[in-house]
Design a protein that fits this description.
Strand content: 15-25%
Oligomer: single chain
Helix content: 25-40%
CATH superfamily: Aldolase class I
Number of strands: 12
Structural class: alpha/beta
Number of helices: 9
Bound molecules: S-adenosylmethionine, iron/sulfur cluster
Order of helices and strands: EHEHEHEHHEHEHEEEEEEHH
Strand order of the largest sheet: 7-8-9-6-5-4-3-2-1-10-11-12
């Protein structure tokens, strides 16, 4: 499917819940958030209908996200069912890792193609500060367990000024072995993220070059996203950067987002979207669901505008969107 600017849209991020086991300081208030009533969240059957419509329109790659996707009951059968939808190719999942260890075998058996784990630190005290939880050991055990499987694994870190700058080099060290990609994601000014400061990509780059020597740009594309990758001598995994604000990649945007409450979001920076839950629950048939997906694609702007002052600026925290 092409959008109005000729970009091919073949990737859908699917948020299955806004509940989460952590309270990351850039994403979720410390006291937690008011949880959306179950009835307002799309059922797995409804999500599968949206995915099937998207697949018919040419979407091939699906990312299961949240909140924390592994806290939703029935997540593994959902992944299995999604893999079986006609036209669906790649199904990946992003998780905070806390219970990933418990699900690894089942997820592999269900056919998941890759897993991203969000991990901002290898230091227990910093983990507690970032996530406001005591789950450090559990998350870390999951990461090491996942590294020991055949699963393609990427680690995502959001460097935040004054919080985890000193974790950048130790985390990157995990790319040395087992082909694990380690990516640094620029903090986005959404919700709580707007109150914190990102660590500039150039500073991250300098820290890494001082520790490991030259980072060489890599042509390789790993997965479906906008990360720019670098190789490091002696490392089997790549180092990636996803810097939506400072190094805009809207020209290569290939995605739509489906929130847990059934909004199809054309762009992360705007709260505009197509209410596909309304279409589903008013008895819309497959053609109507496809029209809604197409409409969301046609609403995609040429580029994001996080400074937009048009009343459309996205103010939700990321746990309600899916990242
Ligand atoms: N709970 C899962 C996890 O943490 O991977 C999936 C959902 S989480 C919202 C998806 C991604 O969004 C995580 O990698 C997280 O670090 C990132 N994220 C959340 N808030 C962010 C923000 N303000 N700026 C940049 N990334 C953010
Ligand atoms: Fe939960 Fe992921 Fe948000 Fe952290 S980033 S609070 S793990 S949804």
């Amino acid at each position: 499917m092409k959008d109005r600017f000729g970009r091919t849209i073949d990737y859908l991020r699917v948020s299955v819940t806004d509940r989460c086991s952590l309270r990351c300081l850039y994403c979720m208030p410390p006291e937690g958030a008011e949880m959306t009533a179950h009835g307002e969240i799309l059922s797995f059957e409804e999500i599968l209908r949206v995915c099937a419509a998207a697949a018919e329109l040419g979407v091939r790659k699906f990312k299961v996200t949240g909140g924390e996707p592994l806290v939703r009951r029935g997540i593994v059968p959902f992944v299995r069912a999604l893999k079986r939808v006609a036209g669906v190719g790649n199904v990946t999942l992003t998780t905070n890792g806390v219970t990933l260890g418990d699900f690894l075998d089942e997820l592999l058996d269900a056919g998941v193609d890759a897993v991203n784990v969000s991990l901002d630190t290898l230091n227990e005290a910093v983990f507690r500060r970032v996530t406001r939880s005591d789950n450090f050991e559990k998350a870390l055990r999951s990461v090491y367990a996942a590294r020991n499987t055949l699963l393609a694994l990427k680690l995502n870190c959001v460097p935040v000024r004054g919080i985890n700058e000193d974790d950048i080099v130790p985390l990157a060290e995990l790319a040395r072995e087992r082909g694990t990609a380690v990516r640094f994601i620029e903090l986005m000014p959404l919700g709580l993220g707007a109150k914190l400061s990102p660590v500039p990509r150039e500073e991250i780059f300098d820290r890494l070059q001082r520790a490991f020597g030259v980072l060489t740009p890599s042509e390789e594309r790993l997965g479906n996203g906008p990360a720019e990758y670098y190789s490091v001598a002696g490392f089997t995994g790549k180092i990636g950067f996803i810097s939506a604000l400072s190094h805009n990649f809207c020209g290569r945007c290939n995605r739509l987002r489906l929130t847990g409450t059934g909004l199809l979001k054309p762009c992360l920076s705007s709260d505009a979207g197509v209410d596909i839950k309304a279409v589903l629950r008013k008895g819309g048939d497959e053609a109507a669901v496809k029209r809604a997906v197409r409409a969301a694609v046609m609403l995609k702007p040429a580029r994001h505008d996080f400074s937009a002052n048009n009343g459309k600026h996205e103010t939700k925290n990321m746990f309600r969107i899916g990242g």
